[in-house]
Amino acid sequence: MYFKDVAPPALLAALMAMPQLTSAFYLPGVAPTSYKPEARVALNVNSMKPVAAPQDARLHSVVAYDYYYEPLRFCQPEGGPKDVSESLGSILFGDRIKTSPFELNMKVNETCKSLCAAEYDEGSLAFVKSLIEKGYSFNWLVDGLPAGQQIQDKLTGTTFTSPGFQMGHESNAGGVLFNNHYDIWVEYHEVSGNANQLRVVGVVVQPSSKKYTGQVDCADGHDPIFISENEKSMSVSFSYSVYWIESSTPWATRWDKYLHVFDPKIHWFWLIDTAIIVVILVLTVMSILVRTVKKDIQRYNRLDQINLDDLSGTSALEDGVQEDSGWKLVHGDVFRAPPKPLLLSILVGSGAQLFVMTGFTIVFALLGFLSPSNRGSLGTITIVLSTVLGFIGGYASSRTYKAWQGDQWKLNIALTPILVPGIVFAVFFLLDLFLWAKASSGAVPFTTMLVIVSIWFVISIPLSFVGSWLGFRAKQIEAPVRTNQIPRQIPPVSGYLRPVPSMLIVGLLPFGAIFVELYFIMSSIWFSRIYYMFGFLFLCYGLMIVVCAAVTILMVYFLLCAENYNWQWRSFLAAAMSGGYIFLNCILYLVTKVQLSGLPGAVLYIGYSALISFLFSILAGSIGYFSSWWFVTKIYSSLKID
Ligand SMILES: *[C@@H]1O[C@H](CO)[C@@H](O)[C@H](O)[C@H]1NC(C)=O
Question: Where located (predicted)?
């Protein structure tokens, strides 16, 4: 499927307006390629990425290196390596695909081909050794399919292909073994028995370490290449063999063996757990809405009647009203503009934009647009959606701001597309500087940064302005009750209704709803596993929205009952706390699953975690805020006041 088919017209127009900048980001389709026998099949190399080290199953680094990074001394193709064109999202997510010297010809077995001999000095040997110790792996692509290793899942007993294969491993004698020979097993499939239409449907590489003393013969029985501490210099010859195996797997299902559900039960278990919590919460909110509120209103209206008819009233009735009628007493203040309405409206505007973007992304994923065969499609779709949906951000922000009688509307229009994206970009840029300093290939190239900034300025900001303009032109959202001139005094709140305890309680539940999927997403980000359980993710996202809305509404109700009418910021911040929990969870993950040596790795890990948590905070906060707004409008509009 071609990405072009789904790219919105606005983006296409903009892409056409900037041909020089974007021509480097050709978006390749994933149509099948058929080869004739003996035709060359390209083997491309991606950057070296850290995966969990086998000795302790922990991640020791988050910094990727280019395959041709000088100290690695890997063999280059004649005339030097060339960049393979990639999508914008693919570049953003760290792919740096280059050509390689490996010669693969369809259906031609090669038993031993010598590549080159590389001379390592003390510094480069120490570097290679440190990468092997940190569990770095090769990431090769044959016809777009990642070369992997066969792995058996101990839990379910099934085998699957895990992309990437080890650069070497630690030996018991204190040093490391360095893999310099690669047995490449390529599976091919004949299209409907036609011997001239062959397709690549599987790639597995078995690396091994062979210390050649004379000829490069690939024979078994060579000693392994052992790099010990303080090794001064070494010459390493690289070699490979290629074996072509006929397979019955058709091209359409060639990715299936990479898609492995680790522990499927836990997803269901968690989903059902969350669903039960959702049902309980929603029933509670409904009972408040339907029963208490109705009863309250009836009683309140009756009280009004009695007060008018019979000024003496009945004390019993008033006593009954006293306990749960707090929310009605603040009817003259509940629609008072919150403090800092500008900031609030910008945050909830950006949150609404993120909310819609995440929803669309998950739906696209469900429709199969984000299949791993479509490299980098997640990044590309995210960028396209967040650009185009700048419209929603502007609209939500300006309508909110207008509803709270904000008068700095120019500032609102200008800051909405700048504040949150600016923070994201600034953090991203700072982290990129760290990667640059480490000479990592993960650093996003300057030209890519430039493209993103131009897309942002040329498309996102104008769209946001249009949204803001429409939002300000729209009729002001009227409060159902009149706001008094003089603000009512807020009695001090106690117990769980205080700001911090309420945030801690409210934030926990939405976090709980996505906790398990978060765990799998994190292991796919940091351990380069393929995440594709989008069905679960879709359900979890839905449950998270409902939980977030329901629990914030409950808090706002109790807050109003305690005669505290500062619900706007409280609802936003309480729901936003779930992002705080995500950050805590990332830190916990850092302690238990990751063991980063050195400050840059930790800074990068914490930086990216903080960025994602911040965005989730805004998203959840705006769910909390908008649902509370709906709830407050609902209950006060059913109230009859003079
Ligand atoms: C290549 O070698 C493998 C393993 O020895 C063998 O199974 C396969 O049939 C060979 N393929 C061809 C095309 O000769």
Answer: Membrane
Total Cβ atoms within 10 A of residue 261: 16
Question: Residue 487 contacts by C-beta under 8 Å, 6 or more apart in sequence?
Answer: 333, 336
Residue 354 in contact with residue 541, Cβ under 8 Å? Answer: no
Contact between 198 and 188 under an 8 Å Cβ cutoff? The reply is yes
* Four-residue CA torsion sign, 596, 602, 606, 608: negative
SS3 for 504?
Answer: helix
Q: Retrieve residue 190's tokens.
A: 């004949």
Residues with CB under 6 A from ligand 1: 107, 109, 243-245
CA atoms of 264 and 516, how far apart (whole Å): 11
Nearby residues of 45 by Cβ (< 8 Å), 6 or more positions away: 67, 68, 74, 81, 97, 98, 99, 100, 138, 139, 140, 141
| pTM for the predicted model, two decimal places | 0.85
By C-alpha distance, which of 28, 39, 40 is closest to 144?
28
pLDDT digits (tens, 9 = 90+) for 329-380: 888 999 999 999 999 999 999 999 999 999 999 998 888 788 777 788 888 8
The residue contributing the CA closest to ligand 1 atom 10 is 244
Ligand 1 atom, smallest distance to 109 CA: 1
Tell me how far CA of residue 42 lies from CA of 39, 84, 184, in angstroms: 10, 11, 13
What is the number of alpha carbons within 13 Å of residue 198 lying toward its C-beta?
Answer: 22
Q: Give the integer Cα–Cα distance in Å for 518 and 510.
A: 12
DSSP string over 460-471: IHHHHHHHHHHH
Find, among 165, 168, 164, the residue nearest to 179 by Cα.
168
Kindly give the number of the ligand 1 atom that is closest to the alpha carbon of 108.
13
Average predicted confidence (pLDDT) for the chain? 85
> Would you call 292 helix, strand, or coil by DSSP?
helix
Beta-bridge partners for 608: none
- Band of the pLDDT at 252, cuts 50, 70, 90? confident
Instruction: State the Cα–Cα distance between residues 436 and 439, nearest whole angstrom.
Output: 5
CB atoms within 10 A of CB 77: 16
Inter-residue long-range contacts of 481-486, CB under 8 Å, 24+ positions, other chains counted: 481/331, 481/332, 481/334, 481/335, 481/636, 481/637, 481/639, 481/641, 482/332, 482/641, 483/332, 483/333, 483/335, 483/336, 484/332, 484/333
pLDDT one-digit tens code per residue, 311-331 = 444 444 444 444 456 788 888
Hey, whose CA ends up nearest to atom 9 of ligand 1? Answer: 245
Q: Output the CA 110–ligand 1 centroid distance in Å.
A: 9
Structure tokens at 162: 């895990």
